[in-house]
Model the fold of this input.
Amino acid sequence: MNLLTVEHVSKHYAAHTALDDVSLTIPRGSVYGLLGPNGAGKTTLIRIINRITAPDEGRVLLGERELKAEDVYRIGYLPEERGLYKKMKVGEQALFFARLKGLSRRDALKKLKCWFEKFGIEAWWDKKVEELSKGMAQKVQFIVTVLHEPELLIFDEPFSGFDPINANLLKEEILALRDKGATIIFSTHNMSSVEELCDHITLINRSKNILSGNVEEIRRSYGANIFELSYRGEEQALRQALGSSCTILEGTESVLGYNTLKLCVEEDAAVRRMIATANEAVELRSFRELIPSMNDIFIRAVNGSL
Done:
């Protein structure tokens, strides 16, 4: 079942079209990647979902009905542009945002204490926000975004400014929120994070939705039946044994004693025979299909070469 449905949404600003007939469906309980180059229209779509602005055409459905103003309480939004009041104390500000989300002071304090301990920032409760590093300030904003346990969470470049250890901590928390039932929209330029976190993606380019679907299905659908063999033995003997059963693309020598050969097998049915042939000609160490990364697909899609 889908939690959020965007139907034929368009948004225009004077002579500029920010979104052009964009449609997508976000399954309940999934991490959904919203991808695209700068200026593609991602932030405009996020602002429409958050009811910060309205579409000129189309509509957004939450479940079975059209999104309403009061639904913002069911949404948690972490924007790319961070917005904490620098002169306020960290705990005071976190409590303020929690109360805005509808939590009682007692519940807010209890939950904030747990989250501050989890992120290792409890000692900063009485410090001013201006004393925080960028990464620590982002931890505070992440906490106040998820504190009221919203049904839909929207993260816009959540790992910006984080070191690898804290980025991994945040990834684990995002997946834990999904496992507890939250639906997550994740906007980023980091394609490795997309492969680690996202179940489905939509790629927006020049205001249009140009690619949507399950991440693994998309990667496999744009594969080209290219495989890599790792082996020990004579390359010429292997090439002769394979003959015309495949197209050899390139071969490389390894300092560890194993060579690699990259090749293309046109027919799926020929793969098993090719492995058996190679194994008789050389000492075969490994065989794997080279599936394109989301980064490769992103670049090809934006350049119009998919």
Observations:
- Residues 164-179 form the longest helix (16 residues).
